[in-house]
Amino acid sequence: PRCSISGAAALSINPSPLFKSSLPTNNASELNLSLGTMIPATDDSTKIDTDADAEKRMFRLYNHRNKKIPLAISIHLNFIFSLIYAAIVGALSFAKRRDFELTNSLNSSLLLPAHWTWLLVEAARLFAGQRGVLLDKVPELVVFLLLSLFPQAVATIYLGFLQETILVWDRCLNSTMLLVILVEAVLTCRLLRSISSTKETPALDRNK
Asked: DSSP of 155-182, one letter per residue?
């Protein structure tokens, strides 16, 4: 009896070749299932779909960066132009208030406040725009867009075309500034649309 028990134990531990031949070796999946392992099936269509999605994400990322560059360059150049604009238009406004005889009291009282309002808002506008472009921040870009339309565009139109005494420098500088503001507003709208379309692309956050 002891020998029969030990023989049965040995048979259960080390199965005979006859028992091994009875395993389902013809089908690899059935063999793996019988051993408690599963081999994941590879589908070529899944790989093709993954490569196509990766190409789409890379194209959207490339397109997004191309829309950031023009606005970033425009804001950088706007810093320099705003300094020149503030110096010349500010000097002209002080000279008009001091040396010219302004008959319209409303224009006389609005001249310097309009320039100071433009100067203070311009610093905040450019800072918000630069931060929004560099970091893809939607709130900063929206603030930059709103400040561009009001009060900057309104103040520029007043200083260049609606004040009582208009000089050549007034028309030239304010026309250029108004053109810059409109171009930046269009570029900001394009960038905001690009950010909204790439929000669902995780590669954008990894490659900032």
From this structure: HHHIIIIISSS--HHHHHHHHHHHHHHH
